[in-house]
Amino acid sequence: MVKAIKVYKLGGPEVLQWEDVDIGEPKVGEVRVRNTVIGVNFIDVYFRKGVYKAATMPFTPGMEAVGVVTAAGPGVNDVKVGDLVGYAGNPMGSYSEEQIIPADKVVPVPPSIDPTVAASVLLKGMTAQFLVGRCFKVEPGHIVFVHAAAGGVGSLLCQWANNLGATVIGTVSTKEKAAQAKEDGCHHVIIYKEEDFVARVREITRGNGVNVVYDSVGKDTFQGSLDCLKTRGYMVSFGQSSGAPDPVPLSALAVKSLFLTRPTLMHYNLTRDELLKAARELFAKVESGALRVRVNHRYRLSQAAQAHADLENRKTSGSVVLLP
């Protein structure tokens, strides 16, 4: 038996229960991993609340972790016992001391990368990788607008876009987060509680608008994000921390011939080759110093409810991890 977080009913952080579970042994094509560091992401909150539907009830949340392989099932050839591996995405279940994972879903963690850094950056970092490199290809001269610029993904988006030669505009909630966003490559930081971000973006771009908006906030910012785009601009909605956006009539896009997409990491890492390539590129960015990973908050795994409460109440910045 190992300890894990279980969810028996949807709701607030209090529904996260700490208990004993039996995870069994790996079957064909699977490995058993003893987690050493677990990443916390807003998608975990979405599943806990029922915004996204878990395949089964009860379930163990968590989409990201780094750990050591302790057993391998039949047919596993490229992962062995003792390997340090990371994983990000499906299957859900990383809020556990140990877990069973398909071997083709784990990636090797280079010795040069601290496991805490790897566990805090894998999901968010591969998300940033596909958002700036494949969903919309950021190039020198582009103007990029990032909501929640001091958040886990937002921080990495700002750094990556800046590294690619773009001008980066970001929104934050406090002066402290504004200072962090500046360090992370934001050329213009908007404290949205003090300024109208649409008006400020128009001022910064001299009325032209931005090439792309990366919006993880959703309902509260969606229409404003559309208003910030230039003609033929790209609206990338990849989260909804404030709730689901209202329905958008196609005519709203026709005003400026806008593009709208709602991508997920899983659809951009469908194959093992895509997954390994994304992880390699991410770790190379971290190793080179192009990406600074801030692990600002650490909680015991048993304190997952407190971690969720702080994340939802915007008391966190950078990455949040759980320690078994």
UniProtKB/TrEMBL annotation:
GO terms for cellular component: cytosol. Transmembrane segments: none annotated. InterPro entries: ADH-like_C (IPR013149), ADH-like_N (IPR013154), ER (IPR020843), GroES-like_sf (IPR011032), NAD(P)-bd_dom_sf (IPR036291), QOR-like (IPR047618). It comes from the Eukaryota. The keyword NADP applies. SMART domains: PKS_ER. This is Probable quinone oxidoreductase. It comes from Cucurbita maxima.
